[in-house]
């Protein structure tokens, strides 16, 4: 992340995700520029507070009014209770950026009488800066708004613009919920190893390091997963024997298609509710 061009930000909620954002912004300020930050959070981490002061950021200026960006990182169920208290941060030129799951652009625009609004969907590896965050912006957002929002999201990992809000249900089903599918893969791989005779702890160590290592290899080489899979599987070998089972008509492909479809449908239903 490059330096920050001294934006003023109000951050509401500084838990796992909000905290990760602040840590990244601190690094950015170290590289240059500045930051004026108001944090609305009952238990803001004192360590982050000292780090912000150490890099020269202006923290919680008195009587703060409209800011450049209002960032909403509370749980969706907390959202209705914070709106009235943080409206003072929204003026004519404020961009509203939300990472709350399921809260629509329309709800956000209405709550703050704002036009330049961005709805984001991060995922849990964002806590260590290795996530992927998809976002959709209202048409009123300018290219400069998008650039600033992408820069502010960088501490969470990769950033992916999405063309239409209706696709956020699929995004939720793939990358939002996706880490849970991968953790399940590690769990069932460990259980299978145990059934084949390995002790429980060794089975879990082998399975989880395999999942983590394969993910890191894919990311660091930039090679497509299909190519990496072929590198492991030689004709007539052990990997091929397993892939024949996983690739069968009732194998992993159709199963994941059903799982993703169920998650996307649940996201649509929750959106309507
Ligand atoms: N974690 C993920 O994997 C993930 C993935 C996709 C999207 N998201 C979205 O990211 C958002 C944040 O998630 P998170 O995991 O960072 O949750 P979190 O760790 O619980 O953070 C939320 C923070 O908001 C604080 N808070 C509660 N009430 C508040 C209030 N009235 N005013 C200001 N702050 C208040 C909480 O403080 P207390 O803890 O003291 O209550 C907590 O520090 C959620 O909307 C979630 O949908 C998260």
Task: Tell me about this structure.
This protein is of the alpha/beta class and 273 residues long. It folds into 2 domains: 4-168, 3-Layer(aba) Sandwich (Rossmann fold), CATH 3.40.50.720; 176-272, ProC C-terminal domain-like fold (Orthogonal Bundle), CATH 1.10.3730.10. The chain has helices spanning 16-31, 46-54, 79-86, 105-112, 143-153, 168-176, 178-195, 200-221, 225-232, 238-246, 252-272, and strands at 4-12, 33-40, 58-59, 69-72, 95-98, 117-121, 131-137, 157-161. It has an 8-stranded mixed sheet with strand order 3-2-1-4-5-6-7-8. The longest helix has 22 residues, at 200-221. The two termini are 38 Å apart. The mean pLDDT is 96. The structure holds NADP nicotinamide-adenine-dinucleotide phosphate (NAP).
Give a quick precis of the structure.
The protein has 273 residues and is an alpha/beta fold.
According to CATH, the homologous superfamily of the largest domain is NAD(P)-binding Rossmann-like Domain
Structural class: alpha/beta
Helix content: 40-55%
The residue-averaged pLDDT reads 96
Number of domains: 2
What general outline do the C-alpha atoms trace? elongated
Number of strands: 8
Largest sheet: 8 strands, mixed
Corresponding CATH architecture of the largest domain: 3-Layer(aba) Sandwich
Give the H and E element order.
Answer: EHEHEEHEHEEHEHHHHHH
**How much of the residues is beta strand, in percent?**
15-25%
